[in-house]
Amino acid sequence: MKTSFIYVFTLFVSVNAMAQEETKKKGLGGFLEKAGQVINSPSVGDLSNDEIVQGLKEALKVGISNGSAQASAVDGYFKNSLIKIVFPPDIQRVEARLRQLGLGKEVDRFVLSLNRAAEDAAKKSKPVFVKAITSMTIQDAVGILRGDSTAATQYLRRTTNEELYKQFFPVVDSTLQLNKATKYYADLINTYNKLPLVQKVNPDLKQYATQKAIDGLFVLVAQEERKIRKDPVARVNDLLKKVFGQK
């Protein structure tokens, strides 16, 4: 493994305490600025593989914390066009027809409820991600360090999707019922199915909403990973440019 990898991920361990404060003040950018200051210090030396892996884990925890916080905030899904949950693709014709019938407000209320369910479920994500990061092996870490711009996100999806589904589903189910989204959906679908000459529909709402909530969360985690890899190239120093610019 290149020595430069050792240096860059050591810094995440060295500035972990400072990172907590900087991320509160300036977000991930502030954390990376502090990282740049430490990496220029002559006191950083060779470390073991275990320390390299620990440094990577600390870096990933920053990313997943930010991603989870964004997703679980009010309007974290609803006002983010990248992850907003809309009508299932196979029944979008239902939405269009219902709006033609003057049921636009009811449709909008249903869509909002879907996204509120996802935002509630996202609160369960951080412990699942932390467990996966904690279980990371040296081989996993090397693969992530040498991988593409979302290698860590891909690792997390492989290792957490099933557990996230188990954690998310009951929350989505509960929130959909609390927000009456299940009732809204049933009313909308029943209205549509009564129309003449339409193909009746009845897709599984809860499964759809749960998986879309998970997919949206990974979109945000991938964004955070790209920041960790890319921001130092643009704003910190030549060493980070060399590290993150090579595989």
Question: Which helices and strands appear, and what pairs or packs with what?
Answer:
Blueprint: H1 3-14, H2 16-26, H3 28-39, H4 49-72, H5 92-100, H6 104-122, H7 125-134, H8 138-146, H9 151-178, H10 181-193, H11 205-235, H12 238-244
Helix pairs in contact: 1-3, 1-4, 2-3, 3-11, 4-6, 4-7, 4-8, 4-11, 6-9, 6-10, 6-11, 7-9, 9-11, 11-12
Number of strands: 0
Largest sheet: none
Rg, nearest Å: 22 Å
Bulk shape:
elongated
User: What structural class do helix, strand and pairing data support?
Assistant: mainly alpha
Please count the helical segments: 12
Mean pLDDT: 74
InterPro entries: DUF4197 (IPR025245)
Signal peptide: 1-19
Protein name: DUF4197 domain-containing protein
Keywords: Signal
Could you explain how this protein is built, in words?
The chain is mainly alpha-helical. The chain has one domain. Helix content is 75%, strand content 0%. The protein contains twelve helices and no strands. The longest helix is centred in the last third of the chain and has 31 residues. It is elongated. The N and C termini lie close together (10 Å). 36% of the residues are buried. The N terminus and C terminus are likely disordered. InterPro entries: DUF4197. Keywords: Signal.
What are the main properties of this structure?
mainly alpha, 12 helices, 247 residues, single chain
